[in-house]
Amino acid sequence: MNLLNKAITEQLHKNFPLGADMEQMVVTKFFDPTGSWSWYVMNMDMDNDYCWGIVKGFDIEMGSFSLKELEAFKGKLGIGIERDIHFKPIKALELWERLQKGEHV
């Protein structure tokens, strides 16, 4: 599965000037199906690599990550990162608060 499609890519590019603004929408979610990490993507640069969002791993953090590194990752059993096709866009601040409460989003 491709992590991005045209519509998601366009929205992520549109959001790029918003940087870390917590009022913007989280557009998509990636996850490791054999682990516990999730990446909630808010925006992405025009080179289609530098992403900004919320990462739920050992802790819940906000920061940048590389799309190319996520695409190249092969975890347990050689399975890569996937996009949650059931994820519904949500305001970053609401997502952050829900994750801090331990909710599954």
What can you tell me about this protein's structure?
The protein has one domain (6-90). The mean pLDDT is 96. A hairpin with a 6-residue loop joins strand 2 (28-31) and strand 3. It has 105 residues and is of the alpha+beta class. The radius of gyration is 13 Å and the shape is globular. The strands form 2 sheets. Strands 5-4-3-2-6 form a 5-stranded antiparallel sheet. It is 24% helix and 30% strand. The two termini are 21 Å apart.
Question: What's the quick description here?
Answer:
The protein is α+β, with helices and mostly antiparallel strands and 105 residues long. The protein is 24% helix and 30% strand.
List keywords for this structure.
105 residues, alpha+beta, 5-stranded antiparallel β-sheet, two-stranded antiparallel sheet, 3 helices, 7 strands, 30% strand
Number of strands: 7
The number of helices is: 3
Neighbour order of strands in the largest sheet: 5-4-3-2-6
Main β-sheet, in a few words? 5 strands, antiparallel
- From the alpha carbons, calculate the radius of gyration and give it in angstroms: 13 Å
Please tell me the overall pLDDT. Answer: 96
Structural class: alpha+beta
- Give the DSSP E fraction (strand runs of 2 or more residues): 25-35%
Distance between the termini: 21 Å
Query: How many domains would you count in the coordinates?
Result: 1
Order of helices and strands: HEEEEEHEEH
Give the % helix: 10-25%
Overall 3D form: globular
Spans of 5+ residues with little confidence (pLDDT < 50)?
none
